[in-house]
């Protein structure tokens, strides 16, 4: 795909993001979600070496909006009115991150959120926090997921401590010049982010 947007994506930006009321009144609402395939998997605590708790993804400002976001220039973001995520982006991203990490870290117990602690063994665990600063398309025809992740470790003896902070930026050309292409590209970038996280976490156990 060329660096400059093709006529089709110009139409997408011009009509769907900046359209006048007369153009948008009759536009049908379309919903999108990540297409991540679910594979049958199971995990037992006796077969794992560590527990990882994935916190709900935090998105900056208006990015946690059902309208798919587009960056128009250096200072302006816009959200589509008729092209929406099928659920809140923070919940979708968290579920996707959990699934990718659960699959990649086959000797970790990966859970979402902070479940109730019932015994001393469960009081030692890692905790992963994501903070997304970009989750959008742009006028150059790219999908952009950028931000940072923080890793904490909690132990019964020492409590909670910060282990690492990593900034990341995954920017790639759109697979196709439409909203489906943008959603697919964002999902691919998010999977890459989580695969990199899994690689980093795997090295902790081998130190």
From TrEMBL:
Gene3D superfamilies per the UniProt record, alphabetical: ABC-type transport auxiliary lipoprotein component
Domain of life: Bacteria
Protein name: ABC-type transport auxiliary lipoprotein family protein
InterPro entries linked: ABC_trans_aux
Keyword Signal included in the entry's annotation: yes
Organism in which the protein naturally occurs: Pseudoalteromonas haloplanktis (Alteromonas haloplanktis)
Residue stretches making up the ABC-type transport auxiliary lipoprotein component domain: 32-198
Signal peptide: 1-27
PROSITE patterns noted in UniProt: PROKAR_LIPOPROTEIN
Keywords from the named record: Lipoprotein, Signal
């Amino acid at each position: 795909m060329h660096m400059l947007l093709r006529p089709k994506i110009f139409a997408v930006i011009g009509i769907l993001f900046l359209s006048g009321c007369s153009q948008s009144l009759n536009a049908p609402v379309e919903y999108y979600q990540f297409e991540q395939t679910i594979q049958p998997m199971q995990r037992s605590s006796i077969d794992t070496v560590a527990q990882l708790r994935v916190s709900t993804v935090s998105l900056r400002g208006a990015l946690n909006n059902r309208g798919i976001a587009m960056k128009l220039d250096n200072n302006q973001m816009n959200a589509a009115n008729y092209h929406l995520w099928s659920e809140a982006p923070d919940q979708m991203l968290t579920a996707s991150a959990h699934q990718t990490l659960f699959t990649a870290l086959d000797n970790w117990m990966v859970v979402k959120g902070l479940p109730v602690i019932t015994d001393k063994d469960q009081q030692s665990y890692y905790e992963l926090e994501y903070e997304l600063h970009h989750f959008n398309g742009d006028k150059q025809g790219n999908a952009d997921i950028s931000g940072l992740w923080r890793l904490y470790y909690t132990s019964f003896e020492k409590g909670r401590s910060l282990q690492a902070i990593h900034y990341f930026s995954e920017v790639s050309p759109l697979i196709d010049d439409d909203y489906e292409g943008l959603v697919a590209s964002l999902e691919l970038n998010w999977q890459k982010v989580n695969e990199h996280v899994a690689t980093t976490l795997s090295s902790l156990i081998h130190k």
